[in-house]
């Protein structure tokens, strides 16, 4: 079903109208005159000026390169010396190279810039590139294009030219892996890849080679397109742009298309998917990753996974506001759910699709897939943000509720840093958000572990929102701010710890390690072990406050007595459950936040008076 939906997307977005070409960003243009002389390298990259910050100097940031039509497949010679399109991963006597545009190392003899053990490979590929170009020139019978043959003849015969090329690459700051193409001077900067007659020749060549391959293959009903056609024996198209999630620059999708031999079928034949189907779902995946559709965001990476999302009719970025949630976006989602409507461009009955992928070297691995009505997804997201809403202790939050927490921030709240996040955390939280699922205990445990390790500094709004969400999804009622009517012992003991902390601060000021830093881990897990000791210490501090700061002493003593009166006669024996430890954490946090909120309200009232 995943591949069918991707193929439908490719058809809807007209990605299959020119299957002989892919659009790629080309960084460099090689300019040649009519006599085949090298005139220089032209930079096709796009740069953006980044303003200076502080004492740092302004800099330029690379944001892309020129998009050009590039042949979808490289070429090589078969045993009979005939040119054919080929699987780029195929091994053979003649290494494949891509017509019209390929990497600098495969096009120009810049030996000095290439590692010695790789020079022979690149030399073989470069020879293939220029021999095929010469073949195309002879086929087109164009005198104008003879300049290409003249330039190719000079490359290996002129050592001085090779050094000139290497210096030009260095001075322009190109890498040998950057894509380059060719232009003739009389074309006024137009690349050969943009010439209609060359594009037509390649289309005819590609289609003829494709038809020949199809005629010799196994025929069957393609499970992606639904049409009877030739079934491919391998996946020849790669997914790009996934280096950030652990893939190589180009990687194959793992979907069972490379299954073991079955019923005398080999490779992808066993999955009954045609080359057209493979090309279609691959183009759709690449387009989603690049965010190609109507300037809408369709992909987002969170740590080691990438989420790809689209709708049957059109993509609505509002649905994925949890990736970069602003208060305005969150409010729009909640308001939309409350009113039972969405943007007029999308019907609630339209389908929403979400594909979660990760990388494994040269393979793209599907981790999860979901399709559901847009209206249901909208309502689930609204509930997600409602469940996350919690008091914010930050300077800007001043103890008031907040719920605009991006997914990446929630993910990182489970660990010391982004590198320590459990591999399955992003996908689990995403599934919980859009399917309204419970949060695994492992995530609650990870958050509580960080609180014990970090002490008072670990109580950040995003982490506490995640703890609150976890409890709510387990059917435990939790409020956004302090709940003075809550009588659960774990919550009350958490509130008491915040009061103990404040009493200590009022009496002693800043100390190297306060009561939270020293006792949070033990008190939150087994209150009976340290409750008496902490209560006694608080009474000692109160005696000092009554003499030095009577007002603070009276207020703290009153609050301490109010909370203690709600407690059972004795602390619960043994260790608190994971959920009760979550309650404890929220009780402590809510009590602190309430104080911040009261201070902010007093300041606001004073400013108005």
**How would you characterize the largest beta sheet?**
5 strands, mixed
Structural class: alpha+beta
With helices defined by DSSP (H or I, 4 residues minimum), what is the helix count? 18
Unreliable segments of 5+ consecutive residues? 255-263, 342-346
Question: Percent range for helical residues?
Answer: 40-55%
Into how many domains do the coordinates divide?
3
Spatial ordering of strands, largest sheet: 13-14-17-16-15
Query: What value does the average pLDDT take?
Result: 86
Query: How many beta strands in the DSSP annotation?
Result: 19
Note the overall shape: elongated
**Distance between termini?**
65 Å
Backbone CA Rg: 32 Å
What amount of the residues lies in strands?
A: 15-25%
Description:
The chain is of the alpha+beta class and 609 residues long. The protein has 3 domains: 18-216, no CATH class; 317-344 and 374-472, no CATH class; 489-608, no CATH class. It has helices at 2-12, 104-107, 119-140, 146-155, 159-172, 196-215, 275-289, 327-339, 374-388, 407-412, 425-435, 441-454, 461-472, 489-508, 515-525, 531-548, 550-565, 578-608, and strands at 21-26, 28-32, 38-43, 46-50, 59-64, 66-71, 75-77, 83-85, 102-103, 179-184, 218-221, 228-231, 239-240, 247-254, 299-302, 305-311, 351-373, 390-391, 401-402. The strands form 7 sheets. Strands 13-14-17-16-15 form a 5-stranded mixed beta sheet. It has a 4-stranded mixed beta sheet with strand order 3-2-10-9. Helix 12 crosses helix 18 (578-608), helix 14 packs antiparallel against helix 15 (515-525) and helix 16 runs antiparallel to helix 17. The longest helix has 31 residues, at 578-608. Residues 255-263 and 342-346 have low confidence and may be disordered.
């Amino acid at each position: 079903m995943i591949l069918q939906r991707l193929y439908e997307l490719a058809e809807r977005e007209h990605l299959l109208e020119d299957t002989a070409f892919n659009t790629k960003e080309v960084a460099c243009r090689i300019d040649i005159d009519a006599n085949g002389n090298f005139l220089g390298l032209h930079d096709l990259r796009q740069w953006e000026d980044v303003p200076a910050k502080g004492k740092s100097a302004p800099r330029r940031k690379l944001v892309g390169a020129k998009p050009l039509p590039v042949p979808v497949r490289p070429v090589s010679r078969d045993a009979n010396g005939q040119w054919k399109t080929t699987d780029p991963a195929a091994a053979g006597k003649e290494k494949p190279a891509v017509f019209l545009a390929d990497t600098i190392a495969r096009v120009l003899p810049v030996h000095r810039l290439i590692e010695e053990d790789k020079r022979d490979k690149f030399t073989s590929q470069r020879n293939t590139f220029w021999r095929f170009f010469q073949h195309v020139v002879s086929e087109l019978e164009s005198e104008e294009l003879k300049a290409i043959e003249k330039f190719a003849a000079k490359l290996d015969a002129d050592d001085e030219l090779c050094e000139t090329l290497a210096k030009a690459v260095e001075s322009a700051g190109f890498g040998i892996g950057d894509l380059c193409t060719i232009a003739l001077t009389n074309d006024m900067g137009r690349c050969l890849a943009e010439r209609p007659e060359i594009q037509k020749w390649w289309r005819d060549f590609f289609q003829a080679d494709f038809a020949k391959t199809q005629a010799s293959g196994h025929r069957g009903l393609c499970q992606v397109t639904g049409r009877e056609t030739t079934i491919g024996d391998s996946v020849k198209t790669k997914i790009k742009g996934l280096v950030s999630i652990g893939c190589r620059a180009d990687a194959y999708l793992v979907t069972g298309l490379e299954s073991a031999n079955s019923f005398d079928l080999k490779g992808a034949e066993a999955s009954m998917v045609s080359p057209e189907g493979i090309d279609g779902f691959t183009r759709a995946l690449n387009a989603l990753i690049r965010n190609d559709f109507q300037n809408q965001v369709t992909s987002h990476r969170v740590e080691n996974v990438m989420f790809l999302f689209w709708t049957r009719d059109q993509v609505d970025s509002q649905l994925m506001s949890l990736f970069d949630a602003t208060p305005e976006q969150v409010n729009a989602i909640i308001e939309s759910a409350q009113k039972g409507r969405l943007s007029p461009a999308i019907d609630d009955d339209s389908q929403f699709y979400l594909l979660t992928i990760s990388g494994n070297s040269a393979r793209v691995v599907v981790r999860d897939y979901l399709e559901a009505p847009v209206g249901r997804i909208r309502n689930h997201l609204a509930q997600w943000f409602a469940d996350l809403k919690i008091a914010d202790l930050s300077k800007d939050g001043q103890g008031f509720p907040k719920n605009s927490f991006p997914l990446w921030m929630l993910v990182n709240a489970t660990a010391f840093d982004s590198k320590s996040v459990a591999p399955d955390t992003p996908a689990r939280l995403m599934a919980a958000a859009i399917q309204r699922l419970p949060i695994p205990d492992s995530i609650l445990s990870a958050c509580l572990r960080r609180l014990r390790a970090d002490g008072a500094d670990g109580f950040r709004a995003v982490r506490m929102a995640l703890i609150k969400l976890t409890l709510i999804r387990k059917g435990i009622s939790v409020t956004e701010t302090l709940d003075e009517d809550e009588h659960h012992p774990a919550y009350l003991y958490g509130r008491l710890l915040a009061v103990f902390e404040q009493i200590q601060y009022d009496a002693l000021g800043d100390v190297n390690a306060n009561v939270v830093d020293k006792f949070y881990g033990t008190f939150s897990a087994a209150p009976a072990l340290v409750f008496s000791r902490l209560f006694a210490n608080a009474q000692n501090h109160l005696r000092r406050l009554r003499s030095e700061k009577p007002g603070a002493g009276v207020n703290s003593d009153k609050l301490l007595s109010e909370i203690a009166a709600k407690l059972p006669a004795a602390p619960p024996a043994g260790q608190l459950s994971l959920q009760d430890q979550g309650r404890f954490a929220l009780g402590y946090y809510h009590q602190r936040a309430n104080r911040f909120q009261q201070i902010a309200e007093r300041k606001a009232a004073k400013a108005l008076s």
